[in-house]
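Please fill in the sequence for the structure shown.

STRUCTURE ENCODING:
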């Protein structure tokens, strides 16, 4: 289970991510941000010789169970796309996805 702080950071950072168009550079920035935050939340590691060190990337991957922020965003996009596909054809979002731009008179 992730710490309470982590459960609040990811939803805040990824709010509205279903509609983001991310470049590889932006994905890398998000991964760096996530690693920095995760290191702060989990803190340093005490080695057998009594010295403290920062956690390695592999240790961080194990802690978050390889569910990094980019994978989370991609899964949220797929979830949103499936939701739109199930929508009624009268919905504006569904029509936009299909390329049908219908103007409604008000």
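FILLED IN BY: designer on duty
SEQUENCE:
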């Amino acid at each position: 289970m992730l710490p309470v702080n982590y459960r609040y950071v990811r939803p805040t950072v990824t709010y509205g991510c279903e509609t983001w168009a991310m470049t590889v550079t932006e994905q890398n920035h998000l991964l760096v941000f996530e690693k920095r935050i995760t290191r702060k939340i989990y803190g340093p590691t005490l080695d057998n010789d009594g010295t403290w060190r920062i956690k390695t990337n592999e240790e961080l991957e194990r802690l978050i169970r390889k569910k990094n922020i980019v994978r989370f965003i991609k899964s949220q996009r797929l979830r949103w796309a499936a939701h739109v596909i199930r929508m009624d054809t009268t919905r504006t979002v569904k029509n936009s996805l299909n390329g049908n731009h219908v103007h409604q008179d008000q």
